[in-house]
Specification:
By secondary structure, the chain is an alpha+beta fold. Helix content is 35%, strand content 11%.
């Protein structure tokens, strides 16, 4: 396949950016989208031009590093990570727009790379549990009902890619934050920090400048791991319960 790529190029956060057009030829349908970008970069380097900067790591759909808006959709036309999106989903001669995540809380570092450290700070605010030191406890010493275990695992699958933020018209991080809160709150090990966790993580989310959730559902639609939208309701419920115990603890973002 021969493709026309219109890629966002931006040297740094405070510099102007623009879509730059490139031609990529002889693209195999079996290539992943990132492999196609590798081919483009090899050609640019061979011509003495600066390659396109983009995030990637495992390339196995696990780490959540790859983060591209492709033709206006987070991760592209398929519900998967960008590294697992293959070129067979495009057609010969197609024009493809490639942009970074667009959110105030995700400033552009360079080209298609954005700073997603805001997610790290939300996790640091409360995404942990208290655990006694010493030897590992017996695996069955704390029984967990099967429905609770399934619910926790469903939310623990979040890889923090940020597609939910990029897809949300408000730039909300509610799906990400709720996944972390629901995962830990559902399990007995997360009970000691149950109230402080939701208050601290929601406060951190608001402080980072993410928008509020208005239940458009776009976040869950593009999530490559299928994190359920119902987690946001759980987060809101947990927040209201904790806020009643600690008046003035914070606003709901």
């Amino acid at each position: 396949m021969n493709l026309t790529l219109r890629i966002w190029r931006q040297r740094r956060a405070d510099a102007p950016g623009a879509l730059v057009t490139y031609q990529v030829r002889d693209v195999s349908p079996a290539m992943s989208f990132l492999e196609m970008l590798d081919v483009l970069n090899e050609d640019l380097i061979g011509r003495g031009e600066e390659p396109v900067a983009f995030d990637h790591d495992c390339r196995e759909g696990i780490c959540g590093m790859c983060a591209l808006v492709i033709n206006g959709r987070a991760h592209g036309p398929e519900r998967t990570t960008t590294c697992q999106l293959h070129m067979r989903h495009f057609t010969d001669g197609q024009v493809i727009d490639v942009e970074p995540w667009r959110a105030a809380a995700f400033p552009v570092v360079k080209d298609l790379v954005v700073d997603r450290s805001a997610f790290d700070r939300i996790i640091q605010a409360g995404g942990y549990i208290t655990a006694p030191t010493g030897s590992a406890p017996e695996a069955h010493s704390v029984p967990v009902p099967k429905p609770d275990a399934d619910l926790a695992f469903a939310h623990a699958e979040c890889i923090g890619c940020g597609a939910c933020v990029a897809a949300c018209p408000n730039g909300s991080a509610s799906l990400f934050t709720s996944a972390k809160i629901t995962h830990l709150t559902t399990l007995p090990q997360g009970a000691p920090e149950r109230a402080s966790r939701v208050l601290d993580m929601v406060a951190a989310m608001d402080a980072e400048g993410f928008g509020g959730c208005t239940n458009t559902g776009a976040c869950a639609t593009v999530c490559p791991k299928g994190i359920p939208l119902t987690g946001i309701a759980t987060m809101n419920r947990e927040f209201l319960r904790a806020a009643r115990k600690e008046p003035g603890a914070g606003r709901r973002g």
